[in-house]
Amino acid sequence: MAAEQSYTVHEKLGEGQFGVVYKVTINGQLYALKKLKTSDLDQRGIIREISTLKACFDHDNIVKLFDVQKSHGKIEILMEYCDLGTLNDYMIKNRPGEGTIFNFMLDMARGIHSLHNKEITHRDIKPDNILLVARPDNDPICKIGDFGLARFTFPTSGDTATMSSTYYLNTGCGTHLFKAPEVNFRHYTKACDIFSLGVVFYAMHSLETDNVGTRTLLWPVIPKSNQVFHQASQGEIESAVTKHVSNSMKAALLKSMLALDPHVRPGADTVESTISSYKATID
């Protein structure tokens, strides 16, 4: 998106804490354009970070980033347009069956695995940040989107010779319903994405909702107590999974992903391979 290149805005696709996303056309092609809400002090660092990140997103299950620039005092990110919207809205409207849910889980696991292979932590996995693209005669494909909070899980400056093998992030962020417990202590790794993905998987099965403003959102909480997952006990989490996930293999995977201790959660590679093997048994 060159500075002089113009675009036509069709509609607002969504708005969050960090920006507004519009459906736009450039040279006859549809895109999603996100305008970030950020201070001038933040802009240079964000542009540098996203420009580096965009080179990593060559994967079918990750929303493609085409360009990022500063325009009219705002940061604008040009992204792939996903025609079926968010996982949140699709699940509530369509309530897909077991086979489709397996496909969605595998898509998301593949996307997270690709990010983690490149040492990128997303830090805000939730149904509104999973986007869907239609495919003829097949289930939609899920893509991980919204990388405003994504960070490399290794120092991008300094003496790499002294770099620890485990690099901890220390910025409090994420969405309350879906974030991992260790994020509250501002000492966490990419394992936080595994916990958040586990909550998303749970939400797809429980289909609990709540109305927030004009929208209906998937609202995963512990039954009866209405406790959010990152504040619940391990026993409460496991009971909730048992209640809503009837497939014993999937339930076991979700319980491991939702371990309060990040050191015992499976890696993204294990999550992907486990879902793939489970899916093969039902196919």
Q: What would your notes on this structure say?
A:
It contains 7 helices and 11 strands. It has 283 residues and is α+β, with helices and mostly antiparallel strands. The chain folds into 2 domains: 8-80, Phosphorylase Kinase, domain 1; 87-282, Orthogonal Bundle (Transferase(Phosphotransferase), domain 1). The strands form 4 sheets. The protein has a 5-stranded antiparallel beta sheet, covered by helices on one side. Strands 6-9 form a two-stranded antiparallel ribbon. The radius of gyration is 19 Å and the shape is globular. Residues 156-165 have low confidence and may be disordered.
Provide a brief overview of the structure.
Helix content is 34%, strand content 22%. It has 283 residues and is an alpha+beta fold.
According to CATH, the fold-level topology of the largest domain is Transferase(Phosphotransferase), domain 1
CATH superfamily of the largest domain: Transferase(Phosphotransferase) domain 1
Question: What is the straight-line distance between the termini?
Answer: 43 Å
Count of DSSP H/I helices: 7
The portion of residues forming beta strands comes to: 15-25%
Q: What is the SS-derived class?
A: alpha+beta
CATH class of the largest domain: Mainly Alpha
Mean pLDDT: 87
> What is the radius of gyration?
19 Å
Please outline the major beta sheet.
Answer: 5 strands, antiparallel
* Overall 3D shape: globular
* Largest sheet: spatial strand order: 1-2-3-5-4
